[in-house]
Design a protein that fits this description.
This protein is α/β, with parallel strands linked by helices. The protein has two domains: 7-54, no CATH class; 58-253, Rossmann fold, CATH 3.40.50. It contains eight helices and eight strands; from the N terminus they run αααβαβααβββαβαββ. The protein has helices at 27-42, 45-52, 57-69, 98-120, 133-142, 144-147, 189-199, 210-218, and strands at residues 78-82, 125-130, 150-152, 157-159, 164-166, 204-206, 224-226, 252-253. It has a six-stranded mixed beta sheet, sandwiched between helices. It has a two-stranded antiparallel sheet with strand order 3-4. α4 (98-120) links the parallel β1 and β2 (125-130). α3 (57-69) crosses α7 (189-199), α4 packs across α5 and α7 crosses α8 (210-218). The longest helix has 23 residues, at 98-120. The chain is globular and about 40 Å long.
Amino acid sequence: MLLVIDCECWYTDISCIDSAHSDNDELVPQLIRISLTLLITFYRYHEIFRLLFSPSDALSIRVQSTMKALHLMPNQYSSVHLRMKYPVPGINETDFSFQKHKSQIITGWATNAVNCAAELHPNATIYVSSDNNDTVGYLLEESHFAQQQYTDATKHKKHPLVVKLAARDYSSENQHINFSPNREVDGFMSVFEDLFIMGLGKCVAHGVGGYGRLAAALSGGECVMEHRGGNGNPNVCLNALKNLKRDTSRRVHDNY
């Protein structure tokens, strides 16, 4: 009696996570006991996570649908997460206002976060997620990443930017579990959708808080940058529109 687990398929088709099963449930406790040491020794966090957890059918469908609509192929795009409401001096989680902080903080933090993601994975599509939907909208609709184009001097034609941003429907804001105790489970679906999509990418640029770090760990933890430190201040990255060369000596972590 064998338990066959195809780890590689998790990076190409999220639905195949559910296909790993045994036809004898009595084997499962025995397998766990025998394999625990091996798992800890040979598997990293993202692999252990996928051995223990699988998405619901509804979540799996949403993730696949969003990735298909945005033309995201596993390990061929990267992600940036912005935890804008994290409580640091000047920011209050419960009464956060995008318009209040837009000119002073958000535009700088958001722009720098994308710059960091572009350093990690030049010329790749960058999936954007945040605990503040207006910040996602700003990056995709108003920022210089959305507005600027470069001109081919020989053909005099406009071309899209090498930094391409993508996001799911951001008309509604992700709810924070700690601040939404009465919300139904389905109300957090978009939170897990973002998490799984970021986890299927190649690189993750994240800021403060554990959610972004978890997404980085699920992506493999080998291509990660912290665009904001624990004190909330940004770790400044190069201007992605002027220089996409990656500086591997800065803030790239491999210990996830």
